[in-house]
TrEMBL record, chains A, B:
<keyword id="KW-0456">Lyase</keyword>
<dbReference type="GO" id="GO:0004590">
    <property type="term" value="F:orotidine-5'-phosphate decarboxylase activity"/>
</dbReference>
<dbReference type="GO" id="GO:0006207">
    <property type="term" value="P:'de novo' pyrimidine nucleobase biosynthetic process"/>
</dbReference>
<dbReference type="InterPro" id="IPR011060">
    <property type="entry name" value="RibuloseP-bd_barrel"/>
</dbReference>
<comment type="pathway">
    <text>Pyrimidine metabolism; UMP biosynthesis via de novo pathway; UMP from orotate: step 2/2.</text>
</comment>
<keyword id="KW-0665">Pyrimidine biosynthesis</keyword>
<keyword id="KW-0210">Decarboxylase</keyword>
<dbReference type="GO" id="GO:0044205">
    <property type="term" value="P:'de novo' UMP biosynthetic process"/>
</dbReference>
<dbReference type="InterPro" id="IPR001754">
    <property type="entry name" value="OMPdeCOase_dom"/>
</dbReference>
<dbReference type="InterPro" id="IPR011995">
    <property type="entry name" value="OMPdecase_type-2"/>
</dbReference>
<feature type="active site" description="Proton donor">
    <location>
        <position position="105"/>
    </location>
</feature>
<comment type="similarity">
    <text>Belongs to the OMP decarboxylase family. Type 2 subfamily.</text>
</comment>
<dbReference type="Pfam" id="PF00215">
    <property type="entry name" value="OMPdecase"/>
</dbReference>
<dbReference type="InterPro" id="IPR018089">
    <property type="entry name" value="OMPdecase_AS"/>
</dbReference>
<dbReference type="InterPro" id="IPR013785">
    <property type="entry name" value="Aldolase_TIM"/>
</dbReference>
<feature type="domain" description="Orotidine 5'-phosphate decarboxylase">
    <location>
        <begin position="20"/>
        <end position="282"/>
    </location>
</feature>
<protein>
    <recommendedName>
        <fullName>Orotidine 5'-phosphate decarboxylase</fullName>
        <ecNumber>4.1.1.23</ecNumber>
    </recommendedName>
</protein>
Length: 313, 313
């Protein structure tokens, strides 16, 4: 019987693929091989090209990465057709065995947040039917509105074996302006970290990790120790590898001694792997390029993790 | 020639309708007259019913309220079909002369935020075409990621005469947990208010108001004076009237002496007006009920505003 708790499912996938890598799906048109843009001249054809590109990346990484992270904005940019593409890509990834972390950074309260939760992770009630919409495995959230903005998503996550990753310490320099403000009990993001640890305490799976995760940028390694201490049983989603300036050597700071507790996210570094592929048609280059890039990133992380005694296999 | 700056367009609409009211469009199925739910049994038919309901509300309030505020979550709940409904409702409202404030509370950085901005307010580039997607007049945002999360939306707003409303002090009790934290220079939300005032200083229209607005809940009237002082030329979008416990008597605290600078938002109190209508078919009840409720709310605000010397007409 498969584990139904989100964190247990994540750990299962991590062990099955021997990788921690979360592959971002950011289908900006400029990131696609030119052949996939042939005939693209409206929102519907753009959305179809984006979906085709993402399916290629998914097929390439399905057995070498535990999860993908579609960025909702790049689908929403194509309007209703883009949402259709997001639904299709999410279903394709789940069918391939990947976990899907929808990067939507939603945040609202009450029935509004419940509507986001039903759409992203749960079921929407239409008459006496309960219908899945995105049916992702987890979603990213923003904590600015406080605990009430997380609760409706937690309720749905608990009921359906899903998870959430809440913004704590993001990778951009300007994050200092709100998250980094000093309060009597630490900086704002440390207070958010405490809140997440509280919420996660009663929500741990068999492996000890909570279904409430946090987003913490690799570009702030100095804060990794504090965040890890404040949220020992929280999975950290760690963007910032590569183009944003985060170094693989810093990643082990975010990881627990069991080799778990943090997953790095990389988007262009994987999905752009097709640029390094010489032969074959576009779809094959996307697939092979993503696979090669994912394996290479996992390998780049292996050394630092092994030296820190945190390579799990 | 119509004013192209968002704040000027808003003031024009306010004066044309002699009302400050922003009418929320929250088409949860439970809020619709039962007749509109006949035959609704999947996401597509639910989205169509939601759109029909919103069109009725729009037709009812078009000449008695300056703007509508569709809540993205209630459209997203119906998947791609819901996004299609949101696009349709937005176009219907703009054609009726209403300004459309898309309540999406987005927040991300870099090219991701640029994609949200292009979809919500601007144009999306497909090959050599620039296509509108939602083409709303303004959008709500979350500031947790700092100034970089606002800049791409500001760029698009500046270029297209659009606006934004950033969460500052929300109406829910738990907002204290993040927004209300004390820092050496005031609470977190006061720091966000300062940031918005800075960003707005170079972005004022002919009437002196910026295209950078703020969301501040009516349920915290004690903070109104501080917020007003920190952001004198910022339009405040003020939810919380009615069901959330905000009192019309407190609204003038948010308003400047020119009778401008704040707009109250009400959703169910207007869109649920059909419940007070006896005869006619469902669409007529929705239209007439919304109109009557909007006029009644404006009237309820008139007394307190007039007593404070802030009734503009």
């Amino acid at each position: 019987m498969p584990a139904t708790h989100f964190a247990d499912r994540l750990v299962e996938r991590i062990d099955a693929t021997r990788s921690l890598l979360v592959v971002g799906l950011d289908p900006e048109l400029g990131q696609l091989p030119p052949e996939l843009l042939d005939g693209v001249d409206d929102l519907a054809s753009a959305a179809a090209a984006a979906a085709r590109f993402c399916r290629g990346v998914i097929d390439g990484v399905a057995d070498v990465a535990p999860a993908v992270k579609p960025q909702s904005a790049f689908f929403e940019a194509f309007g209703a057709a883009g949402l259709h593409a997001l639904e299709e890509v999410t279903a394709h990834a789940r069918a391939a065995g990947l976990l899907v972390i929808e990067d939507a950074k939603r945040g609202d309260i009450g029935s509004t947040m419940a509507a986001y939760a039903a759409a992203a992770l749960g079921r929407v009630r239409i008459g006496d039917r309960e219908l899945p919409v995105h049916d992702a495995d987890a979603v990213t959230l923003s904590p600015y509105l406080g605990p009430e903005s997380l609760q409706p998503m937690l309720d749905v996550a608990d009921a359906h074996g899903k998870g959430l990753f809440v913004l704590v310490r993001t990778s951009n320099p300007g994050s200092a302006r709100v998250q980094g403000l000093q309060t009597p009990d630490g900086r704002v993001f440390e207070q958010v970290a405490r809140l997440l640890d509280e919420l996660g305490a009663k929500r741990r799976g068999r492996g000890g990790y909570a279904n409430v995760g946090a987003v913490a940028g690799l570009t702030y390694p100095d804060d990794a120790r504090a965040l890890r201490a404040l949220m020992p049983r929280t999975f950290l989603l760690v963007p910032g590898l590569g183009p944003q300036g985060g170094a693989p050597e810093d990643f082990p700071l975010f990881v627990n001694d069991d080799g778990l507790g943090a997953v790095p996210a990389a988007s262009r570094a994987v999905a752009g792997g097709w640029r390094e592929q010489a032969g074959g048609d576009a779809e094959q280059r996307v697939r092979d390029g993503a696979r090669a890039a994912a394996l290479s990133l996992t390998e780049q992380l292996r050394g630092p993790l092994a030296r820190a005694g945190k390579w799990r296999w």
